[in-house]
Amino acid sequence: MNKNISRRSVLKMLAAGVAATGISGCTSHLGAMTSTVTRGTKSHRDNWHKTHDRVWLGKQYWANPMEDWRVVNGSAECINRGGNRSVHSLTHQIAHLDQPFTMSVQVSRLEQNSNDGGAGIRLGAKSELNEYRSNCFVQQGYDLGIKNNNLVLGNNTVPLMVPVGNQDITLTLTGAPQSGAMALKLTASLTLSGKIIGTLTHLTAASELLGNVALVSNFSIPSVTYENAPEDKLGARYKFSNWTMQGEAFSVIDEQAFGPILWTMYSLSDTLTNEGFVMKLSAYTGPIGEQDNQQLELQVQRDNQWVAIDSQVIDHDGWLATFRIANWDETRDTPFRVIYREKHTDGTQTPDIYSGVIKANPASEKLRMAALTCQNDYGFPYQPVAQNVEKLNPDLVFFSGDQIYETHGGFGVIRTPDNLAILNYLRKFYQFGWAFKEVMRNQPTICLPDDHDVLQGNLWGEGGARMENISKDPSASVLGGYIDSARVINMVHRTTLNHHPDPYDPTPTNGISSYYGTMLYGGVGFAILADRQWKSGPERINVAVGETGQDEDPFYYNPIFNPPGLDLLGSRQENFLIKWGNDWRGHKLKAVLSQTVFAAISTHQPLPDRFLKYDFDSSGWPASARNRAIDAMRDSMALHICGDTHLGSLSQYGVNQQRDSNWAFCTPAISAGWPRWWKPDSMKMPYQNRPAHGLAETGEYNDTFGNKIYVYAVGNPEVGKSNNRYVKAHEKGSGFGFITFDSRNLTYTMEAYRFLIDVADSKASNQFPGWPVTIHQKENRGNNLIS
Predict the structure, then answer these.
(1) Which superkingdom does the taxonomy of this entry point to (predicted)?
(2) Strand partners for 349
(3) Quick one: the chain helix, strand, coil %, rounded to 5?
(4) Nearest-angstrom CA–CA distance, 262 and 268
(5) CA dihedral (397, 533, 531, 617) positive or negative
């Protein structure tokens, strides 16, 4: 927010706020979204004919991949000749097989190619869930359209009567139910004259057509990424317009539209300054165009009236706007709404309203926080986790990193140029918001970037250094530094962190923004850290990640891997932790929020019988820097809450002796990808003082870097084998964490929930063995009560 905003601007915004009270249009409810399901009795047509040129196709569509599509002169144009580029309808799915439907679209070939992959319509695009979001990423179905100079309907082909060339072709499809099947008729006509140039009919099993409907460019060619797209794997290039749908076979849910305001994230924090509580909120839009409206407006409800309190320009490096409001009234729940007025080429506007509640600073002495990490998209949209978190209704939500992975949505990773790299990241990041926007709508949210968020297999940030010798490490998994440009990394920071409380020291490192800092909320003080940004790279000690140490004695602690001069948090964050740990103004409990656990709590990966001695990705390395970080944290008596390992664990750090320092809750992954196991018993690893519960794989150990660690509970996975994404995620040890901070009794209660459960039934089996656990604050500096 511009603190120097003029009085005239304020008056204009207030006037707009009064006028906006009468706005009708696309609106989101203050609570969870409710959906109204109708049939497709009304004809639906795309809105591209009055949309300004831009990347984002509109709220009713999901483009695969987004960076390959544009609205150009009223059409949806695919700018890439790769296979299986698609545009899915989000609001219309074929669901009623005993009812008819019609569909039509205008198709134009923009670039010829002898390896034409065809263009047209895809029916029956569905995942094993047949859920509209997960369906969007299925690259197969019942395809129909034009290919070369043929008309295609499923496996049936007929030559067109005239050469198509670059003429506009209208494809018209009808479906009529027939004794449990569907009689399809496809007609191709010249758009200008209406002359029919081809017709095909086919009787198909109606069940083949259930699911999403989509437009597809090069439907018969497998998709390729930017990295491996030889000419012989590319097809022609197409554009689409005038896409219409009608018929009672369609299930229509308008609330499934996504945008123009995609979602919001906010934080509320006591600054302990004359600014009081500061509320910061980021609102995200799709990548709009230069001729689109460039502003978002924030309104709050006061005395049953909507009042505009700020307006911000959308930042095109991330397509978000961030509002910062000082001296926020933290004593009451405040309804808010963000408004975007979408301009159309015909001069009309459509308002989009995204609503929620900025919760009051919790007055109870118990603060309840959901803690989540790592969402590999084989489990997208993670509905069991999202719904369980909603049921628990936490006061605060924490995402500790890996909101995305390089594989999200398919089609690979783009590193350069920056503008395409940004779009490539954003459409992956949008899957995160799409899945968890209701979790974040009314709850303050902390969201940290980790290695996969910056599209790296591993990240040793080296203080923001640029990665060298990139050709040796195209997956960015073994070398130190950042592989992408500072502009792209800062965009990632902006999209995940802009809504956080202001950083403690924003001084950039090698051009990359610094974000560590504090939040004071609900009587708990939080330190927000960057585990990776200053961490030393493995080149410093000349090791081969994933290979070095495999020939060593598993219990030999090699001092060569712990030379002086290596960093984990870096001196700036270490000094910050010391100062924060001794500042108790306004709170009685503390927690450190970061990406991962300060120990190597895994013995086997990615199979339960493959021992990996050194996991340099863990924050157990470098060991001496790890010990400095814990020394800096100990006086705070803070619980360390983190994620990343895909293995839920509850442990206590030791530096000078076992159990002399903070406890750490590393939460289960939302959707575990690369699996890890902690199986010291299978290796006869020495241990002492197994906890009273007697569970295997627990007790006091030295990890493979020589770090002292007391493992109290661990959520080892199975090998994920199921073809159902949710069952597979459950098998792989996925789930989420939940923490209750009790400022009266000075305790932390930690729960670790499995993926495919219902928290409402309160079954003991809902949690991993060893949870729930309650510890006292003083145990975080080694005054231990639990055994």
Answers:
(1) Bacteria
(2) 343
(3) 20, 35, 45
(4) 21
(5) positive
What's the distance, CA 110 to chain centroid? 34
Please state the φ and ψ torsions of residue 105, each to the nearest 5 degrees.
Answer: -160, 145
Compute the average pLDDT of residues 717-736: 96
How would you class 607 by CB atoms within 10 Å of its CB: exposed for 0-12, middle for 13-18, buried for 19 or more? exposed
Q: Sign of the C-alpha dihedral, residues 248, 254, 255, 256?
A: positive
Tokens matching residue 165: 């060339």
How many C-beta atoms surround the C-beta of residue 665 within 10 A? 28
Sign of the dihedral through C-alpha 295, 301, 304, 305? negative
Nearest to 726 by CA among 753, 752, 755, 754: 755
Q: Which two tokens stand for residue 33?
A: 């979204």
Are residues 216 and 85 in contact, defined by beta-carbon separation less than 8 angstroms?
yes
Residue where the block lists tokens 């709404």: 337
Tokens found for residue 682 = 């299978």
Q: Which residue in the block uniquely carries the two structure tokens 């510890």?
A: 775
* Residue-level pLDDT at 16: 40
Cα(255)–Cα(132) distance, rounded to whole angstroms?
12
What are the tens digits of pLDDT across the range 222-235? 998 866 678 888 99
What is the average per-residue pLDDT within 643-672? 98
Rounded CA-CA distance 413/17 in Å is 42
pLDDT digits 0-9 by tens, 543-570: 989 888 888 999 999 999 999 999 999 9
Tokens linked to 451: 């290695």
Q: Which residues of 630-652 are buried (b: 16+ CB within 10 A; e: fewer)?
A: bebbbbbbbbbbbbbbbbbbbbb
Per-residue DSSP letter, 767: B
The residue among 621, 645, 628 whose CA lies nearest residue 557 is 621
d(CA 612, CA 600): 11
Q: What does the pLDDT read at residue 58? A: 97
Residue 253, token pair as written in the block: 């849910």
The Cβ-side half-sphere exposure at 448, using a 13 Å CA radius, reads 31
* DSSP annotation of 498: T
Q: Please tell me whether residue 552 adopts helix, strand or coil conformation.
A: coil
Strands of 349-358's sheet in order across: 26-27, 349-358, 334-343, 295-302, 305-313
Q: How many CB atoms lie within 10 A of CB 348?
A: 9
Q: Does residue 748 register a pLDDT over 90? A: yes
Residue 551, number of CB atoms within 10 A of its CB: 7
**Does 42 score more than 60 pLDDT?**
yes
Q: What is the mean pLDDT of residues 16-31?
A: 43
